[in-house]
Predict the structure of Riboflavin synthase.
Amino acid sequence: MFTGIIEELGVMKKINKQGNTLKLTIQGQKILKDVNLGDSIAINGVCLTVTDFTDKLFEVDVMPETFKSTSLSSLKEGSLVNLERAMAANGRFGGHFVTGHVDGVGQIVKKTPKENAIYIEIAVPENFEHWTLLKGSIAIDGTSLTIFGLEDNHVTVSIIPHTAQETVLGMKKAGDIVNIEFDMIAKYLHRFFIKGDTSNQPKKGVTGDFLRENGFM
C-alpha cells in the first residue's frame, strides 16, 4: 500500500530486457536507507519487489503482464522515475490509498501553465471512464492527484511547482505515456453495486439505486 506522495526521483541505471520481461537497476538514496530484500517500492506507480540492493542501487524484476500493461517497457537508461516506499503503519498518511497495481496507461494531451500551477489533460482508456469522478482521486505515474476537469475519457489535473520539480510529471510533455491507477474505492463501489448483482431477486439494503437516489453516486 502506498500514498502517492513521491519520496524521490531515481535514475534508471541498467535495463536488461529478455522477451517481455525486464530486470531494472535503479539508483536511489532516500528509499535505500532502510531497504530489505522483498520490500515493495513503487516505480512510476508500479509496485515492484526489491530482489537485490547496495547502498546506492536496487534491482527489481518486471514480469510479462506488467511489461504489457504499464509504461515501464518504454524506459531508457538514464530515465528519471518516481520512487515511493510502501507506507509504514506508523507513518503520516498524506495522499490517498494507492495499491501500485496500475489499471492501464494514459496519454498526456496537453500541459498548460496557469499562474502557479500546471494543468495536465490526460486521455485515459475509454473502458475506465466510470472510475473517474470530479474531485476524485487518481494516481498518475504514482503521484496522488485530484481530478478537477472531466470530459468523456479526458481527465484534467493540476500540479504545483513543488510537484513539477520533485516528480517526473514536470518533465513529461504532450504525447507522453503515463501509468494510471484509479481510485480504489470507486473500483470497489462499481464492482459491488453496479456489476456485482446479476440475479433477478429483489435488492435489499444498500444498492446502486439506493446510492444514486440519495446523492452518493
